[in-house]
């Protein structure tokens, strides 16, 4: 707590993605469309899963929660980034910066656990089909979702436990469009090497180990599926392929950024944009375009909404 009394920095300056005014106008239009599509796409999945009885199964319950997390992940920093494209002074308060870091690690940690839960769901469905409904009961599904949020909260608090008390008394420019922990701790007026090592062990290695476990898990699943030739196995293969694509898109950038926090690569900005903006957009695209049940349910939901709208306008 003594460190915090030495802090004189009350705000940070976000350098954003570009200093070119023309590019910033283009980015404003482009990312506004991407953000709207991301929110609407994930919201559509959440509403479809909640309203369609045929999707009231463990896999789609977890998918609906993944879409909610993705919608939140795309919203913790993107609206401010879009607004900053039209502003010359891209500042964020110290409290706002800490809040962004908290929600990034809360949602990131929750998504990691949820992706592992989805892998477990597919493992049980394919390798233990006769016990699937017994193992993946409603209580188990709710417990897995609750666990994902609990892990996310503890992970976020562990990242901020020491960061909030660091003294910031010099440079205050963050070379990104949001407050990312590796960039912010570099601005502290003390040696943050130990904190960096802690961050590697809790974020970088955690992501890497979980990714390796997921690769092993999906490899076992795909080997099992490959030994079968029925239509159901073909559907399972398609589902697992979609899940593994999402896992790779999410974990790849996270591992690259957090395993090497002491080195700032030019590609870090691109990867930050990818896993906070593009991955939440790609998830609904991957799941809906490869899943006939979801597409059919969305059509039914659309038909019901349209029919209800027409009925409501009748005199």
What are the SSEs and their pairings?
Layout: E1 11-14, H1 21-51, H2 58-73, H3 78-84, E2 91-93, H4 94-127, H5 132-135, H6 138-163, E3 173-174, H7 181-185, H8 193-226, H9 231-259, H10 267-290, H11 292-312
Parallel strand pairs: 1-3
Antiparallel strand pairs: 1-2
In words, what does this structure look like?
- This protein is mostly helical and 315 residues long.
- It has a single domain (12-312), classed as Up-down Bundle (Rhopdopsin 7-helix transmembrane proteins), CATH 1.20.1070.10.
- It contains eleven helices and three strands; from the N terminus they run E-H-H-H-E-H-H-H-E-H-H-H-H-H.
- It has a three-stranded mixed β-sheet with strand order 2-1-3.
- The protein is globular, with a radius of gyration of 22 Å.
- The model is unreliable at 1-5 (pLDDT under 50).
How large is the share of residues in beta strands? under 5%
Instruction: Assign the CATH architecture.
Output: Up-down Bundle
CATH superfamily: Rhodopsin 7-helix transmembrane proteins
Q: Mean pLDDT, nearest integer?
A: 83
N-to-C order of helices and strands: EHHHEHHHEHHHHH
Overall domain count: 1
> How far apart lie the N and C ends?
67 Å
Question: Tell me, what's the shape?
Answer: globular
Which CATH C-level class is it? Mainly Alpha
Model regions low in confidence, pLDDT < 50 over at least 5 residues: 1-5
Helical coverage, percent range: over 70%
Care to count the β-strands? 3
Secondary structure class reads: mainly alpha
Strand line-up of the largest beta sheet: 2-1-3
Count helical runs. Answer: 11
Could you name the CATH topology? Rhopdopsin 7-helix transmembrane proteins
Task: Work out the radius of gyration.
Answer: 22 Å
- Give the biggest sheet: 3 strands, mixed
